[in-house]
Amino acid sequence: MKSDEVAFFSLHKQHEIKQLEICWTGTLMNQRQRECKRKMKGKRSKSLSPEPSSSRDAKIPKLSCNSQINDDICNTKTHILDFSDDILLNIMRFLTPQDLLALSLCCFRLFHVCRDRTLWRIVDFRSKPMRIVELKKYLKYFQPQTTSIAINGNFKNHHQVEGNLEELKSDFLLQISKNCKNIKELLVEDYSIVSKDVKITFFPATLEKLSLRGTQVYHLIKNKSYFFEMDRRMPNLTTLIVSDCQWLTGHSLLVISKMPKLKELRLDSCRNLGDCVAYASLATRFGFKTLEILDLRRTGFGDSEIRAFSSTKTLTHLYLENSLKNAEPTDRVEYQRDLFPGPTYEDHILAQYALHGNQHMGCNDLSHCRISDTSICSLGSYICDRRVLNDTAREVILIEEEVRVFNNPNLKILVVKNYPLVTNKSLVHLAANANSLEYLDMTGCAVTKNGVETFKSQKPNVMLISSFDET
């Protein structure tokens, strides 16, 4: 080889090395970054991509830190493809599934990197509503290592001519069950479901968390719950969220209570759920053996149903709230401040509030505010009424020995908001009998300031929130 050719070849190699050094100057300066790189290399060896993402062509050789950088090389711009696949994966972790699909269409290399299984373990499409037809394009990316999928079908705020809610299809659910053998979470929010076409048994059997928040289910069978046989189909389910589902009725409680491992049940904003004493009594007597978190806010439950749930020994969180119809979610806090500025009359038992104008709490009367001291005093332990065993002897009455019943011994969080029939009597009972209580919210209830201060002095370790707190 001639000397001029050798010089040209050496200059060309030096130029290439200098250009690559720009990309790695900041990444090879300390031991911590090198350790992170080795860890990422071990994770990438398990990739499900058709070819190893860190291929030899994509690898960048280790450079010497003592080499000098020419001025003309410093002005060279770095392209995204100059980075290794490991760095690209760190960047792609912050992208939505929609962005990953668009990026995969750019070139063959990005296509394979975007299909890496580490990017498709937890998939959340809820940044914008998705049609089922569009979601089917992502089925090829779902893998056995995919553990969580979340979708949203509410097109109400996106100016769609057709229905506000997208219809869920059975073939899409069945394909998810086929591709994702180990899926644990499925969040299907704001979709319409035709019960005769999409049955509960079509959902993956491996689920541990299922959310049907805001869904609408049509063509329900009157004598059969939509959740029929769910306890057999999903034996490992621990969390069920059916918030804001107006199709849900009381008889579904019987089926839900059969779930052997259910720990969290969200029923908030199910306004048609109420007047179901018989179903609630049977469900709590024979089911709900592992239930810990129960959300009943903005439902029609009353004292009778709450007393039925008081027999659930494992309950730790209970949320009760009467809705404020005049208040929007964004200004509810300001509305409560105006609604409860301070009592106009107060004694040791009851506080009366003057409402401004035509404002009301929940409804025009108190008929729907069905939770009172009766249900709150059933929580925690209480002493049973003692029976008279023998009163035949003169001036001697033999009565039954005092028996204490422990209901909800593990109750830690209790929220009771906007119930005007809940008074200081509940505070006195909870202070004496709720030994595990850590947080109590009684905003909007008819408790007095004196009662709140007394409770705080008796239970200094319990955080009590009330309408008397300074804002």
From TrEMBL:
Domain F-box: 77-123
UniProt keyword RNA-binding present: no
Family annotation (SMART domains): LRR_CC
Region Disordered, annotated ranges: 35-60
Keywords of the record: Ubl conjugation pathway
GO CC, alphabetical: SCF ubiquitin ligase complex
Regions of compositional bias (Basic residues) in chain numbering: 35-46
Protein name stated in the entry: F-box domain-containing protein
Magnesium found in the keyword field: no
GO terms, biological process: SCF-dependent proteasomal ubiquitin-dependent protein catabolic process
